[in-house]
Design brief:
Length: 335
């Protein structure tokens, strides 16, 4: 198991305690926690547990080099046949690692994604993200049953060690790049419902906007590299990638096109109703943007979340074109 951490003093103790109770069945395990240039109390907490058991191994270094480098460092020292990746703010159910490992009995399976439930401490905005993740999980299950998932949830997933390739330090979407190594080698990415975990989500849609912008920028970065290197995947995987990922990243351009086109065809009552529906949704989103207390109302919050996320995809596209996104991620402060 590999966990990259940067300034995670708020959650790292809980993560270590969680790792100590995980059940791996008959498999022998190593757990690497890499502190990537942490300057808070993360390293002090890690030292408290140093030498507690052979299973836990801590690595720390300065200066910060990014998550991709942290993963490369840990994997270079790991000896297992299966690599499990998790984040510092993710608490894994005790039996989940056994469930995450079991699909690898099928030689065609190259990566396995766990089921992650979002949770927020306090009164943060999570309705939109929670609904989105339920929708995402539904798609992932369908893809897994038909052929292969496209990417994984980086909060909890596993990969065959022989598929791993060192990540470039400029990599933005490390989890996506790693998971896609499986279909590139003709193997599948599958969804495992029994491997469950809880992730503390970012506190607000404003912060979620930054995260989604980065995800879309990283997605375009991966796609550009994929096309440049001339990789090939099976036709079913190609369809899944276009429909699940690419069309979603391009959704804001479709929304703009639909809105403008609708203005030009107002001579039919049906198109008038469609236009009024769009106006209503964007008006609700505007209320959510300007009056924060209204975000507690689902009729306002969900359109607001939808618009914010699609605007993030719009910004992400231009960030990719201008190369403004940096691989070093400044995470949102957790409570």
């Amino acid at each position: 198991m590999v966990i990259a951490a940067h300034n995670e003093e708020a959650v790292i103790r809980e993560k270590i305690e969680n790792c100590l109770v995980l059940d791996f069945g008959e498999a022998r395990q190593e757990i690497f926690i890499v502190s990537d240039g942490s300057i808070d109390g993360t390293n002090d907490i890690l030292r408290e547990y140093d030498g507690l058991c052979e299973t836990l191994q801590f690595i720390s270094y300065h200066p910060r080099k990014g998550k991709a480098n942290a993963l490369n460092v840990a994997v270079s020292k790991a000896r297992g046949d299966i690599l499990i990746f998790s984040d510092a703010n993710v608490i894994i159910d005790k039996e989940s690692c056994i469930a995450l490992l079991s699909p690898f009995e099928d030689s065609e399976v190259g990566a396995v994604c766990g089921k992650v439930v979002v949770h927020a401490r306090g009164d943060e905005e999570v309705a939109g993200e929670s609904l989105y993740m339920k929708y995402e999980a539904m798609i992932q299950r369908a893809e897994s049953s038909v052929n292969s998932m496209v990417g994984v949830d980086g909060a909890l997933f596993a990969l065959r060690r022989n598929l791993f390739r060192p990540l470039a330090e400029s990599t933005i979407l490390d989890d996506f790049a790693l998971a896609m190594l499986a279909p590139l080698e003709g193997q599948r990415i599958v969804y495992e419902d029994r491997a469950s975990a809880v992730e503390e989500v970012v506190p607000s849609v404003d912060d979620e906007f930054k995260r989604k912008t980065r995800i879309v920028t990283g997605g375009y970065q991966y796609l550009a590299g994929f096309l440049k290197q001339g990789h090939k995947v099976n036709p079913m995987m190609r369809v899944s990638f276009i429909s699940h990922k690419l069309l979603r990243w391009l959704a804001p351009f479709f929304l703009i096109t639909v809105f403008v086109a609708n203005i030009t065809v107002m001579d039919h009552v049906m198109f008038c109703w469609i236009f009024m529906t769009q106006i209503f949704c964007y008006a609700m989103a505007g209320l959510g943007f300007f009056v924060k207390k209204f975000r507690k109302i689902h009729l306002i919050y969900l359109p607001y979340y939808f618009v914010v996320i699609n605007f993030a995809a719009f910004v992400g596209f231009f960030r990719f074109l201008t190369l403004k996104e940096q691989p070093l991620w400044e995470k949102v402060e957790r409570k």
